[in-house]
Design a protein that fits this description.
Shape: elongated
Number of domains: 3
Order of helices and strands: HEEHHHHEHEHHHHH
Largest sheet: 2 strands, antiparallel
Strand order of the largest sheet: 1-2
Helix content: 40-55%
Radius of gyration: 22 Å
Length: 237
């Protein structure tokens, strides 16, 4: 029997929702774009249409404005480590314009906004050094951020336990021979303060002979407590 979304919702008019102090109402009728979704009480807009417009607008801004893309990346990274325990925007503690000025003031020779991607935003004191939630929130603050070339950020490596650094070195050395561009960029995409992204690299490039070493590193006591994006990455032969 097909799933009937209307049967799972309680019909509620805009007036009834307003009287109850709700922000959304539900009629069960599709919007002009065919979405059967809730509507906002304030403007009658379809919730799904609004979400899709937001995503499109965000993608457009990311493509056109490197500073905006950088700001969103910082918020996303903060959100990953905070895991809902605090608001990323409040922890970073500034607006996009303020962060852009802060980062631009710390540009080194050769850094421009057009070259964002070749450099990235680094946490001066690594997030992995946090010993409490309060300390972690402090480390997410924009005053702890600096622009750093990707290669330098990877070399910094302070957040990675030595066994994990060994795996990264092996991955880089093994695959640069067969697919230099892909391996180089995939490995450099791993921020030195973001060990959880390693599984993304392993899914793309991983030698069978490294599987055992990687498993040993994942069980290493110094890595306990880290959140891995995929605890069981697939190994492509």
């Amino acid at each position: 029997m097909p799933f009937d979304i209307a049967a799972e919702q309680t019909f509620l008019t805009r007036e009834e929702a307003a009287l109850c102090g709700l922000s959304r109402f539900w009629t069960g009728r599709p919007c002009k774009f065919g979405h059967i979704a809730e509507r906002y009480v304030s403007n009658r807009q379809c919730v799904q249409c609004n979400a899709e417009k937001t995503v499109k607008r965000d993608r457009k801004c990311r493509a056109a404005y490197p500073a905006y893309r950088m700001f969103r990346s910082v918020l996303n990274r903060s959100g990953q480590v905070l895991m809902g325990r605090a608001r990323p925007s409040k922890s970073v503690g500034c607006s996009k314009d303020t962060l852009s000025r802060q980062i631009e003031a710390r540009f080194t020779e050769g850094m421009t906004w057009e070259r964002y991607g070749q450099w990235e935003v680094d946490h001066i004191t690594l997030l992995s050094a946090a010993r409490s939630l309060k300390h972690l929130i402090e480390l997410c603050h924009y005053s702890n951020l600096q622009p750093l070339w990707k290669r330098d950020n990877l070399a910094k490596g302070g957040a990675l336990a030595s066994p994990l650094r060994d795996v990264i070195c092996l991955l880089s050395a093994s695959f640069q021979k067969s697919n230099a561009n892909r391996t180089h960029h995939e490995v450099l995409a791993l921020g030195a303060d973001a060990p959880g992204t390693l599984s993304g690299i392993v899914r793309v490039v991983c030698l069978p002979k490294l599987a055992h070493k990687l498993a040993s590193c994942c069980r290493h006591k110094s890595l306990q407590g880290h959140r891995w994006s995929n605890p069981s990455p697939k190994v492509h032969r």
